[in-house]
Amino acid sequence: SPGSGVLEVNIHPVATWAELVDLHMALDDEAFACGLTCERYGLDGRPLGTGGGAHITIGGSTPASSPLLNRPDLLRSLITYWQHHPSLTYLFAGQFIGPTSQSPRVDEARHDSLYELEVAFLALAPGAAVAPELIDHLLSPFLADITGNTHRTALCIDKLFPTQNPPLQLGLLEFRSFEMPPHPQLRLLQMLLVRALTAWFLRTPFTQPLQRWGTELGDRYLLPHYLQQDFATVLQGLSQAGYHFAADWFTPFWERRFPRYGQVSLADNPARTLEVRAALEPWPVIGDLSNSGSSRRVDNTLERLQVRLTGAVGDNLETGQLATRYAVLCNGHPIPMRFTGIPGEYVGAVRFRVRTLATLDHPILALHTPLTLSVVDTWQQRSVGGAVYHHQTPDGRSYDRAPTTPALAQARLSERFIPLAEIPPLGDIPPPMLHPDTPMTLDLRLANQR
Question: Distance between CA atoms of 113 and 135, rounded to whole angstroms?
Fold first, then answer.
């Protein structure tokens, strides 16, 4: 694929799990023998996928035998369940997520799509017989990106039964929000998850109303803490249905997707810590999409971090309320740290600019890095610790090449997180700047303007 610099391998479908395992293990062995790998690292040491998709397709041996056409309520169940659980999209996707990505969620494109989908779902009730061409007419207007492209969507039906393209009437559903993981066992785990969910919904249709996430989708569910909570409910539901997945099977996905940049103990108390992890940031496409050809320019000037405070007891709060005793400051601005429901644990986010280019969004705004994080005990009016996070090397140099081994990559992650040896003197702490669109996040672009 010239766009991402990877070799794309299209493999034939199989009918059994044993065949699927044999096929993928053999493919991995052959790739390794050719010197190919599915693992790489960014300049900053973050583990990345190859950039190529690892789409999963389900269907039947023939269009007539496809359960998606014979049981159209299965389509409704899968679409609804994926919409209910952001973790199913965001955990396994690549760097590029959001409305202008290659696989946007159904609720990231048109604002009215959920209402219209619920109208369409009335015809896809369990037990209802629906002609294949009608299924296409019912769903294709809403399973599309913001430009109307039915291929660029998390759940793609352009090979189900497109009425305008008979050769592609194959009875297939393609799950496109999967990037290639580094090991075949992880790839097989993704497929096992899709197989289990499909089997569950064939037995028990999922017919709940679609979820109106509002601002949470672009705020709360860009943070690993809340995505893990969401994914835990997925595994719990599967277990109750008889499909048991251990949560630690998915640990490699979480650690790769949201690497920990660093952790520091506060006030020499090992139980009280400040942890910084990568979070997600949707990067929008720039310019006129209709004239972009095969290449789409992306604004990657922003990044986001999750900040987690543990062992910070003293508040008596309801889940979701802002911390009152402890304030976590980033470059002097308070982060909206919200109580998770676990005693002493609070989570918030920082959105900040790491690059600036005249051709991208908001060219007049300066860089925000390095980020100085400090934790203040407001009851005792003193700082109890903190750290400095550098986006590049601590001396300001840019990395000239990406690391090639896990050890070199981890070294880069570690060297950019420096515990504070000296705590800056305290001044007045301003109230958190809470924007209604991002109540979980400190956006330094806004905070620096007040």
Answer: 16
